[in-house]
């Protein structure tokens, strides 16, 4: 996955000229956040695929939950 993002930051500096903050146009900020969320989704997917814990399908899980609800 290649993410190409062109950003146009503006920096806030202290009295010595050291960069202390960044200002981004809102569209660039939103795009960056979306890209980070996508990367997090990929990381979580990869983590889940690597997990060898036995699982059940969502349909089976919902049926089990519903049958336990009906017994109460």
Describe what you observe in this structure.
The protein has one domain (10-71). Helices cover 54% and strands 12% of the residues. It has 72 residues and is of the alpha+beta class. It is elongated and about 70 Å long. Strands 1-2 form a two-stranded antiparallel ribbon. It has two helices and two strands; from the N terminus they run ββαα.
Describe what is shown at a glance:
This protein has helices spanning 26-50, 58-71; strands at residues 10-13, 19-23. With 72 residues, the protein is an alpha+beta fold.
How would the blueprint of this fold be written?
Elements: E1 10-13, E2 19-23, H1 26-50, H2 58-71
Antiparallel strand pairs: 1-2
Keywords:
72 residues; 2 helices; single chain; 2 strands; two-stranded antiparallel ribbon; 12% strand; alpha+beta
The percent range for strand residues is 5-15%
Structural domain tally: 1
> Whole-Å distance between the termini?
48 Å
Q: Helix/strand/pairing class, anyone? A: alpha+beta
Q: Give me the side-by-side strand order of the main sheet.
A: 1-2
The largest sheet is: 2 strands, antiparallel
Helical content class? 40-55%
Unreliable parts: none
Run of helices and strands: EEHH
| DSSP strand tally | 2
Rg measurement, Å: 23 Å
Shape: elongated
Determine the number of helices (DSSP H or I, runs of at least 4 residues): 2
- Integer average pLDDT: 89
